[in-house]
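Let's sit down with a protein and look at its sequence and fold side by side. Once you have written the record down, we can walk along the chain together.
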Amino acid sequence: MKKITIAIDGFSSTGKSTLAKQLAKELEYVYVDTGAMYRAVAYFAMQNKFIGNDFFNKETLITALPEIQLEFRFNGDLGFAEMYLNGENVEKPIRTIEVSNFVSKVAEVSEVRAKLVEQQQEMGTNKAIVMDGRDIGTVVFPNAELKIFMTASAETRAQRRFDELEQKGDNVSYEDVLKNVVERDYIDTHREDSPLVIADDAIEIDNSYLNKEEQFAAVLELVNDVVKTV
């Protein structure tokens, strides 16, 4: 079967990673969670006191970028690759609400985006890849054979995120999660460098009222249709 590149973009907490993992497993493709890469850089900035609630030393972070080594390592028990930062598994700490509060600000920095986009493009050289993020179909893989743009209401996404964090044992309020979702939406769509926009040739999917199984079936059908035509 012909191998293609699948780019999945969209707002935070729309289930991009879940869908991408499902597709990669079904198609036996490589899955890359670009959001984890930006989260890892944000976590690095937090750990090194480059960013906080009332400050962000961008130039210090830019200077330190060569010190940041990112790597995905496949975990056979979990069935997917986990994010490693400078040799340390950071899959759990990068998923916290604290990192979520800073990741969009870090992702605004052009030098950070340039570093990560270069790595992401290298990963997709041989196609057979599913990548999700904010600028995959517009910047990383503008020639991807299939581009999906996922959306849902802010309230729906906040509830999903809140439920996910609660299940992990995190002590958060729905109001704080909703505030984070709305703030990230604004930053992601208004940044100067690679803002979140829907590519002209992307297929938009509003999954506010779709469950994971329905969404997966719909997108898998799109994949099969594209593969037949390339």
